[in-house]
Amino acid sequence: MRASVSCRIRFDRANKSGEASVYLQVIIESKRTTVPLKVSWPVGFFDNARGKFLPRFRGDQLANDLNMEADKEMAKINEIFMFYRHSDMNLTIEQFQKEYRRYGAKKDFLVWAEQDVKDRYAAFKIANQTYRNDLSSLNKIRKFKSEIPFSLINKDFLESLQAWLTTKGGIRISSAWRVIKTLTTYARRADQAGISVNLESISKYTMPKYENRKTYLAPEELQALKKYYWKSSTPDHHVRILGHFLFSCITGLRFSDVQRVSWKNIHGDMLVFVPFKTRRREKQVKIPLLEEHFRLIHNDKGKLFNTVTEQVTNRTLKDIAEICDIRKNLTTHVARHTFATESLRKGIGVEVVKELMGHEKIQTTLEYTHVDEARLRDEMKKLK
Predict the structure, then answer these.
(1) What is the pLDDT of residues 262-289, one digit of tens each?
(2) Are 112 and 195 in contact (CB under 8 A)?
(3) In this structure, are 249 and 355 located in the same domain?
(4) 229 and 353 inside one domain
(5) Is residue 210 part of a domain?
C-alpha cells in the first residue's frame, strides 16, 4: 500500500495579511485528501518543502508549538497507515477519513460513542430525536468527565456519575437515569464491537427507585380544552395544534405517529398503523374510530394533520393551558397519559388498553392504574 502524509500551506490562497491556511495532505494510492489544521500562518514563514512553520521572530514559541501539533497529527495518520499495512487490509480514502475521525475512540468512550451515534444516524438506524437525545446525554457526561477510558466504566463510576448529575448537574433522578442508560447502551455496543468493557460490573449497578409521576388531564380539564377548541374565536394556530392533541387524548397516539398517520391508515372505522417508536417490531396497532375522532381530523386527504415541530407544539400547548386555566405542564405526551388514565378510569380492561397503546409488556400499561385525583375526591366524599 502506497500512502504518505505531509504538511502544506495554501500559497495561492493568501489573505490580505499574507496568511494562508495550513493543512495535511494525505495521498493513498495516488488519491488525495486533506486534513485541515485549522490554523493560518504567513506564507513567507513556512517551508513547504519540509512542511515546517518558520519562526516569525527570534524565540517565536508559537512556531515551535504548531510544528509539534502538526507532527502529532501526522503521527496519528502514520499509525493508521501502519495498521492497514500490517493487517493486509485495503485502505481507501473514504476508509481513512472514517478511521481518522475515530482515532482515539478505542481509548476514550466519549469519542467512540459520539461517532457511533453519528454513524447510526447517517445509516438511518436511529431517528432524529434519538440522535439528538443521545448526543445531549453524552454532552452531560462530558461535563462530569471530559475523557473516559473504557477501563474506567464500572459500577463505582456509574454511581459517581449519578450523584454528580443529581447534585452539581442539577437534573432530576429520572433524567439522570436516561443519561446513564445512554452510557450503558453504548458501552455494550462497544463491547460487541470488540472493545473490552467491564459489563459484569456495569450489570451490578441499579438506579435508585423514584416515583415516575405521569401528568394527565382530569375530565373537567379535557372538557375545557374541547370547549376552547370549538369556540369560533379560537386562533387558527391554536385550533390546528389543539386538534391533533385532542385526537391523541382519545386515541393514545404518540406525537411521532400523529405526524405520520394518513388516510391510507384508515380502513373503514379502524385506524391501522405501525408505531414509529417500535417500528422495528413491525407490530400493528388497531384503534376503532368514533364520530368524535373523525370530527377532529383536519385534512380530507393525505396526512390527517398538518403538524409543526414538537418544540413549537409544546410551547403553544402551554399558551393554551394558560388560556384554559389549566395549571399543568401541557406537552404532547400528556395526551397519551390522559388516554390511558381515562380509559382505565372508565372501566376499559387493562389488556385492551395495552393493545390500543401498543405496549409490549402489560407492566407498562399497569403503570397507569394509579388512583387519579378525581377518584380520590369522589371517595373522600363518602366520609361525609
Answers:
(1) 999 999 999 999 998 888 788 899 999 9
(2) yes
(3) yes
(4) yes
(5) no
